[in-house]
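Q: Convert this sequence to structure tokens.
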Amino acid sequence: MTRAPLLVVKIGGSLHDSPELPRWIDALKSWPHRLTLVSGGGPFADAVRAAQPILRYSDETAHAMAVLAMDQYALALSQLHGLDLAATPEEIDALHASGRAALWRASKMVAAARDIAPGWDVTSDSLAAWLARESEADALLMVKSVDIGANCALDAIASAGIVDPAFPHYVGGTPVYVAGPRALSDAGARLAGGALPGAPVASRTQKIAS
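A:
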């Protein structure tokens, strides 16, 4: 039996207070195949960053706290937008089998992983790339608050701060797309038809053109 395409979508934490957030979530729900959503840490991760120089906990501890911040934001998105939470591959698969999208609670799988380096270079961007690679996703869509030009390179978007510095390391061979505000107008229609909004990201080095 042919498996349905799997799309992993990272929803940027910077969108937490944007009117575009509910529009993006409505558009993403139009995807007709398997869908796993990954939330950023949003204001909860910002609180971890702000408290670190005051409390002086290590980057490793900050990383663990920031992953828990992703869980907090996922809980909020679940309640506000009617999304189903999943913390393990089995829970994700069960939701997909029932025709529902899965909103990832990252902390359990990240804590068990041995190939994730703890530190601020590995944010929810890299964790979304890791999950997409581990689940053999057909594509990874990064929903951001900025637009990029077509076929920008992985290392270029990392250097520009659009994704975190470790992101290219965790992507593997997963095709990556970045969708910003310009992509939102027809995102629902594109996703409903099985196509992806935004711009594809190339693996080779190219200059970013926004």
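The chain has one domain: 6-202.
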